[in-house]
Amino acid sequence: MLEKVLFLLCLSSSVLAQQFCTPGASEGYKVRLSIKSALGDEAYAWNENEMFLFRATLAFAMRSQYNGKEFQVSDIIVCDETPRVSFWFVVKSPTSSQLVDKEDVERAVRQYRNRINGAFLLTDTYLEFIGIPPTLAAPVNPGTPPWLIVFGVVMGAVVAGIIVLAVSTVVQKKRKKNQEAEDEENEEETRVKTVENVTYENTCGVYNKSFSDDERLTRM
C-alpha cells in the first residue's frame, strides 16, 4: 500500500512538472540541433540516449553553476520534441516543485556552453539555445585596468615625439655645421685665387730699367 502511495506521489509530481513545460513557457528555452548540417556523413541519429545525454549535461551545468544544489537528470524536463531535433526544456528545483528562473538557467548555459557543445560534437551555430546569445563564457575582466592601457599609449606617444624631436635637432645641427665648413672652405679658395691673380698682375706690370738703357745705347 505504501509503495502505491509513493508511486502515485511521484506520478503526480511528474505530471505537474510536465505541465510547466509547454512551448513558449515563461521559464523555458527552445533548443534546435542541426546534426546533419554540422557532421555530414558522420552525423549520428538522435534518439532517447542522446536526449538523456542532453539532460545530463544540463544537470551538470546547473550543479556546477550553483554549488550545493544537487540537480538530477529528472530535474531537466523536456517537451514538444520534433523529428527535426528541436524541443523545449525547463529546469525544476531539486528541493521543490518550483521551476528555476530563466535567468539562472541562461547563466549556467552560457558558462558551460563549451562542455555542452562538446558532448554533441557541435558548435553554437548547430546547437542553438533560442534566446541565449552564443557566448561561450562570462566576460573576463582584463588583468590590466583600461586607464593604465590608455596612459601607457599616451606616454609612449610622448616619448616617441621627444625622440623624434631630439634626432631632428641633432640632424639640423650637423647639417648646419657641415654648411659652415663648406662656406669656410669656399672663402679660403676665393682668397687663394684672389692672391694668385694679384701676384700675376704685378708680375706682368714691372718695368725693366736695365733693358731700357741697353736699348738707348744701341741706338746711339
Account of the protein in words:
By secondary structure, this protein is of the alpha+beta class. It has seven helices and four strands, in the order αβααββααβαα. The protein has a four-stranded antiparallel β-sheet, sandwiched between helices. Helix 3 crosses helix 4 (102-111). The protein is rod-shaped, with a radius of gyration of 49 Å. The chain starts with a helix and ends with a helix.
Please render the helix and strand layout as text.
Blueprint: H1 2-20, E1 29-33, H2 35-39, H3 48-65, E2 76-82, E3 86-91, H4 102-111, H5 113-119, E4 127-130, H6 146-204, H7 209-219
Antiparallel strand pairs: 1-3, 1-4, 2-3
Key descriptive features of the protein:
4-stranded antiparallel β-sheet, 4 strands, 220 residues, 7 helices
Q: Pairing-aware structural class of the strands and helices?
A: alpha+beta
For the report, how would you describe the main beta sheet?
4 strands, antiparallel
Give the N-terminus to C-terminus distance in angstroms.
181 Å
Helix content: 55-70%
SS element count, helices: 7
Strand portion, in percent?
Answer: 5-15%
Mean pLDDT: 81
Radius of gyration: 49 Å
The strand count comes to 4
Order of helices and strands: HEHHEEHHEHH
Quickly describe the structure:
This protein is of the alpha+beta class. The protein is built from seven helices and four strands; from the N terminus they run αβααββααβαα. A hairpin with a 3-residue loop joins β2 and β3 (86-91).
